[in-house]
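Can you please make up a protein's amino acid sequence together with its fold in token form to help me picture the idea?
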Amino acid sequence: MDIIAILFYTFLFLLITLLLYPFIMKHNKHRATSKPKVPPGSMGWPYIGETLQLYSQHPNTFFASKQKRYGEIFKTRILGCQCVMLASPEAARFVLVTHSHLFKPTYPKSKEKLIGSSALFFHQGDYHTRIRKLVQTSLSPESIKKLIPYIETQVISSLDSWVSTGQVINAFHELKKFSFNIGILSVFGNLEGNYREQLKENYNIVEKGYNSFPNRIPGTAYSKALLARQRIREIISEIICKKKEQRLIEKNLLGNFLNYKDENGQTLTDEEIADNVIGVLFAAQDTTASVLTWILKYLHDHQKLLEAIKTEQMSIYEANEGGKMPLSWGQTRNMPITHRVILESLRMASIISFTFREAVVDVVYKGYLIPKGWKVMPLFRNIHHNPDFYPAPHNFDPSRFEVTPKPNTFMPFGNGVHSCPGNELAKLNMLILIHHLVTKFRWEVAGYNQSEVQYSPFPVPMHGLPTRFWRDE
């Protein structure tokens, strides 16, 4: 009887299993297919991936073709790194704001060595918050309004030097010099000429090595850059020592660094200060110079708009007794046409095409897996050139900024806790330079092909926009 019962229950179990098998398999198949996969895309060649395609053509071409083929989320390989690129405002906000704790700032180690591992933009968390607060305080509107007379002096000096040559100049290179001097001003205040020239000379060497192949073979650009970076560190330490001896702690960025103490009374080390000073100088130069170069180009190409700006600026010029009085902070806040030109130039040029983050854990976004360790790149350029947000996006049209852009569709300075803290100073530089340029000078672009763009590493007009300046009599 027991054997019959066992056989009966065995038969019953096999029958139920047989009947349920299709449903079990269907459920398992559903579970297997529902597991998130990495986004679609192409990884290109081994190691180098699609780096050459990205940097050998106009960035609009590369990004737009990818988005058209794969959608707003796609994978690629850039500079040897597996990447996920995100081309929507929602995705940028996800990575940079609402879920920023899942992603960390990331830079190649070779570049980190040249700037300094303690620099603000390599960190997150408490240290980043403390340093960022110091930088923001130093570059806040309340602080930078005091710099207007000094910026004006630098603007006039630069414009006079461009005119005095009587020749065509590389506008981008000259604007880099101008931007570097403003960076020095914002960090150190009125720095002795000897120190300024030493910093400039060594910074230029660091810059040449920044995008070179990273090796330490003596004589290579990268090796020279490392040595120059050490000399910059020594120069900054000497400046710090001198200011401490003289008890001359000014209310500028360096002064705020020197005065800082945390809740335990700990101060910043000279190395931490030097790394962050170099980081600010690095961030201040190329980006501002690149945008100013594009502004020269756009105004040169749109003469009616140039006349409108000139009319706006001449009314301020005349109110200041023909330029005898300095610009006031209030006047720089009341240049609506000029301000819209700057915003449209930032959108069109999109100097920062994307930013790098790294997933610190596996992240699922819109059903796709972003594996831990992969780079994540919100594509500001794609968003800024999306016709859904900016009709006829390739037309230069400052009037579009008469209306505030939709949230997360205009991010020329990034977004979230790692957005650029110096954006107000950058815009102030542009406003002051445009004011003096259009009220006292004229310029023409020499032999420029509108379709040609070069990368150094930011996109600028070919050959740095060869330009000749002269006084407007």
Summary: The radius of gyration is 27 Å. The chain has a mean pLDDT of 88. The longest helix spans residues 2-34. The chain has 18 helices and twelve strands.
